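Design request, tokens follow.
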């Protein structure tokens, strides 16, 4: 038995049919040559062997009576026929190229992403998608769309889970641990549950009181630094100084529909482009998203006059911590979408991320992921229902326009049940007031973007994904136009040529001035003597 932290449980209380709170990914797998049979059966067998090292998949919720406090996780053996299902990719419309699998997969993921997970079972589900066209080499392919509730994992915990169920070679590694096929019915008495909740409450309050002096000092110091950064410099604020985000069509209440799109970019080339300008990979991701949003809103309108703002998740997880829970916070970064010049925009983003890191480093240790929960379920669920019915997001000033998350992934190709994983497109959450989520994860030699949007706010999300690819091509072309490093001889020659041109201009200007003076002397009217 493990009680959910305040942060984990909040994803349960915020969930509604319009706002599902599960994350996942769309994968495309290449099956081994000569593969026969149904991949769904092979995957069920594979996952049965991996359940012992994937505890997040072997637990379900146990609710407190009357929702007095946060629920707890209890052991539960999943029925793999219910959790791993097979679906068939719809056939393309008449006249459409049957090989355009990605467009049909995107539409299917947008539809499947709206389905809530069953809370009476472990909170995950895998959809094996058959019906894909063969690869260029004739290999058979299959897709997999996964769902994991955000109450169970954050981005880093999902990566750790993937490491448990995926392999580094087509031959699956041997797992020595075993899970009993029989589980005894789990029961918690009312007294035991209430006493456990009160004991947890007292412990949390004690920890908060002990941490209070240090927290006050850190917050005070950070506030002083942030105020100093907000001072006007040359008539403008620093990039790290944020105001409210401009209102766009992404900042209204969302509907139950979803639109999904995916795009892949070469990872090493993007890293090299960033190194040329002393920018991190995260800076480059924000730059690409900024450029794509600027182009997209410039076309579909209106492009805000002030910069759009991204909410960027920040991991609070210690290195090596692979627990299946949430340990993250959120920061805000100005994207500079109001800046036309690409290099100035990149400089703006670099300054904004640097300022964010400086501020976050001072308060990272005091940001809570857990807090007292008695009575919280009632309050949060009531507030969520009221927020949605009253369409509060339509009235409040927006804090951010888009969520952009960058999660490091495995640098090598991975396999599942003998099939090679070709893509790893993340699928994440949109919420009332922020109707677009761009989550990025590196995989092997690629950087895979998954764009999830409210279908009413941005039905043309595929166009935005295309704009990210165009932004990368533009950035690559822009970098290629910059002069390369020159040899000493070439540099000396170029400088000498420049001096000669300048001297020629100066001498030419002097000669022209002498001629003008002579002409003026000749043509000047003479004065008569009196």
């Amino acid at each position: 038995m493990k009680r959910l932290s305040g942060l984990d449980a909040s994803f349960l209380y915020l969930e509604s049919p319009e706002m599902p709170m599960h994350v996942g990914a769309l994968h495309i797998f290449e099956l081994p040559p000569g593969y026969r049979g149904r991949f769904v059966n092979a995957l069920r067998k594979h996952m049965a062997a991996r359940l012992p090292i994937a505890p997040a998949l072997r637990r379900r919720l146990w609710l407190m009576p009357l929702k007095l406090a946060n629920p707890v996780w209890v052991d539960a053996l999943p029925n793999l026929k219910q959790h791993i299902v097979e679906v068939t990719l719809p056939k393309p419309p008449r006249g459409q190229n049957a090989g355009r699998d990605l467009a049909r997969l995107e539409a299917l993921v947008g539809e499947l992403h709206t389905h809530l997970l069953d809370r009476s079972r472990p909170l995950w589900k895998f959809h094996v998608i058959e019906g894909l066209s063969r690869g260029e080499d004739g290999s058979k392919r299959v897709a997999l769309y996964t769902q994991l509730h955000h109450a169970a994992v954050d981005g880093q915990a999902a990566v750790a889970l993937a490491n448990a169920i995926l392999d580094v070679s087509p031959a699956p590694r041997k797992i020595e641990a075993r899970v009993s096929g029989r589980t005894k019915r789990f029961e918690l008495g009312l007294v035991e549950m209430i006493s456990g909740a009160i004991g947890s409450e007292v412990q949390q309050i004690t920890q908060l009181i002990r941490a209070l002096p240090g927290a006050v000092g850190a917050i005070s110091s950070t506030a002083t630094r942030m105020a100093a950064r907000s001072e006007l410099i040359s008539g403008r604020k620093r990039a790290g100084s944020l105001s409210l985000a401009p209102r766009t069509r992404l900042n209204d209440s969302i509907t139950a529909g979803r639109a999904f799109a995916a795009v892949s970019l070469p990872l090493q080339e993007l890293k090299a482009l960033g190194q040329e300008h002393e920018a991190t990979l995260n800076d480059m991701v924000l730059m690409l998203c900024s450029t794509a949003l600027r182009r997209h809103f410039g076309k579909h309108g209106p492009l805000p006059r002030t910069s759009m703002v991204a909410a960027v998740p920040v991991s609070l997880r210690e290195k090596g911590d692979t627990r299946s829970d949430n340990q993250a916070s959120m920061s805000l970064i100005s994207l500079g979408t109001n800046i036309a010049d690409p290099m100035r925009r990149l400089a703006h983003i670099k300054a904004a991320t640097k300022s964010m890191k400086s501020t976050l480093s001072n308060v990272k240790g005091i940001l809570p992921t857990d807090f007292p929960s008695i009575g919280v379920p009632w309050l949060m669920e009531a507030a969520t229902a009221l927020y949605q019915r009253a369409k509060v997001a339509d009235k409040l000033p927006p804090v951010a326009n888009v969520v952009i998350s960058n999660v490091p992934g495995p640098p090598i190709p991975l396999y599942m049940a003998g099939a090679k994983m070709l893509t790893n497109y993340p699928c994440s959450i949109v919420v009332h007031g922020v109707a677009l989520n761009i989550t990025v994860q590196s995989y092997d030699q690629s950087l895979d973007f998954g764009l999830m949007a409210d279908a009413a706010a941005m039905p043309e999300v595929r166009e935005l994904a295309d704009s990210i690819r165009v932004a990368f091509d533009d950035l690559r072309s822009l970098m290629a136009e910059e002069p390369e490093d020159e040899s000493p001889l070439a540099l000396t020659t170029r400088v000498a040529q420049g001096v000669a041109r300048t001297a020629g201009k100066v001498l030419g200007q002097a000669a022209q001035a002498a001629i003008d003076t002579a002409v003026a002397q000749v043509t000047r009217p003479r004065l008569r003597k009196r």
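Comment from the thread starter after seeing the answer: thanks! Residues 190-229 form the longest helix (40 residues).
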